[in-house]
Structure formats: C-alpha cells, structure tokens
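Journal club prep — side note

Before the paper discussion, L.F. wants everyone to see what a predicted structure for a comparable chain looks like in token form. Sequence:
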Amino acid sequence: MFLSSKGLLRLSFLEDMMTGLKAKDLMRSEILTVNPDWSIDQLADFFVENSISGGPVTTREDKLIGVVSLTDIVRHSSMPGRDLPREDTSDYYLYGLEPQYSPQELKTFHIENETETRVRDIMTHVIFEVNEDTSIKQVADAMIRGRIHRVFVTKEKKLVGIISALDMLGIIRDM
C-alpha cells in the first residue's frame, strides 16, 4: 500500500493527535456494574436493558473483582454438563390434577427452575485496568494484545471509568 505525501502528512497529524489523548479524555465515568451474586438470567436481562455487552463485576464495597461479558454467557451455555436439571418437585403438586386439566394446561403450571450459576462462576478474574493518564495508544495496544472489548480506568485502586471498543471507534470516526 502506497501513501502519498499528503496521506503521510495526515497520518502524522493523526498520530500526534492520538499521542495527546489520555484515558481520562475518553473514559465514560457513568459505570454500570454487575453484582457477582446475580444469576445468568439477571445478567442477560441487565445487558439487554442497558444495551451493553459486558461490564465490571464489583463487590458491595465497590471493589473491582472481575469482568463479565456476553462471551462468558455463551461460553458457559455451550459447556457440556452445565446446570444439570434437578428433580422437578413441582410435578409432585400437579399429581391428581390430570383429570381436571388437559396436558397443555398442565404444562402452563410447570415451574422452571432458575439456574444456580452465578456471575462469580463465569466471570473473568483478569482485569485490564489503566490509570487516567494512560495514553489512548497504550489503551488500544492493551485491548488488541488482550483481545478485549473494554478496559477499566482506576484511580488509587478505585474504578473511575470505562473505555470500550466502541469508544475507541468513536475517536477514529471523529478524526
């Protein structure tokens, strides 16, 4: 691929612009956190309701302990032997109702057991974090090397922001 002198000049300008940007310039400080005790269903609902694909997992004391994403949910759901069904005790209470209701109606009485798997069971414990003064180039390098879609910005071990792959694309779009 050949670049004209005009293309090289523009590339140099973009590099200079990127060099000056820091994590604090791009991070979103409104952070939606995930509770490690949530069920997988609660987590999926949270992602859908907030139109996000992952988030930081924090304790009640706001300590960052991991990250969980749609990839973790998919990985869990494709694992053989996950959440093997328990004996369905709700069928016991349906005994004797067969003469009064059709099989289709009896199915509506079925109680589905919620999965026992919790966020803490599927989350990733490796956390990619940067400080507020980390250059955007270093953030991009960390995301590419780690093959991740979000990094967390911390200050004195406290979560203060998040930068996602979409945030990084926004920089490119706005140039």
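L.F.'s comment for the group: The longest strand covers residues 158-164. Keep this in mind when we get to the figures.
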